[in-house]
What we know:
alpha/beta, 2 domains, Rossmann fold, 298 residues
Amino acid sequence: xxxxxxxQALGKRYKQRWALQNCDLDVPAGRVVGLVGPNGAGKxxxxxLASGMLKPTAGTIEVCGGRPASGPAQLAKVGFVAQDTPxxxxxxxxDHLRLGARLNPGWDDVLARxxxxxxxxxxxxxxxxxxGGQRAQLALTLGxxxxxxxxxxxxxxxxxxxxxxxEFMQDLxxxxxxxxxSVVLSSHLVSDVERACDYVIVLVDSRVQVAxxxxxxxxxxxxxxxxxxxxxxxxxxxxxxxxxxxxxxxxLLVRTDTAVHDPxxxxxxxxxxxxxxxxxxxxxxxxxxxxxxxxxxx
Length: 298
């Protein structure tokens, strides 16, 4: 698996506080990757390090084969849309496109103007008078017209209403299909990740808890419900992610590559959100499986 982003023992410290520490991560190239995790997991810090907006305190990070922001050629490889979808309020859309052309040697002005036209935006309109959804679309246009190898989006729809969020995600999926980008999308909304991404990484306290193809992860996780019992008695191939008990009943979320044959269990399928939440509630230092089939990363 070739990696578009690779971090080893990566850390970022602000004075006495570590925002990211001992992070090991491989992000596969040519995929649309959803990065999810609780607040404080280090997602935004990781993406800011990947874009070159921050420099690491410890460890190493490599993006598109080089050190982030190490020179003009490296900067041109990465497009970045931050959480607040930054635009300049006093500048018109035309001004933004001219600025993009001046700053980016690979700028595709035809792509940019075509997207603005399809969005129905007025080139003379100042960014400060656009709606939140329109500003997000402008920021996405600037990121795409740069023609990057990797497009990084850090919570790009967090402040948008449901309709604007759906339109943004739909436009993103169409752009990815058209331009064959590698994408890393950070989001708190698993529904957005499930809609737009084909690969997911769950980050908790700087540690990758699980990573893999969404379809594979959904196929390999199940909920088992049955009479109360000790999870340690399960067959070796059934890995318990979470367990809960009542006086008479045990409910387990397990990961397994084989069918569950024990008739005392009721086996139920799980959605991606159930799986993500289960890994988010585990201790960050819980033992993680490293089987290649699930691409669980250390």
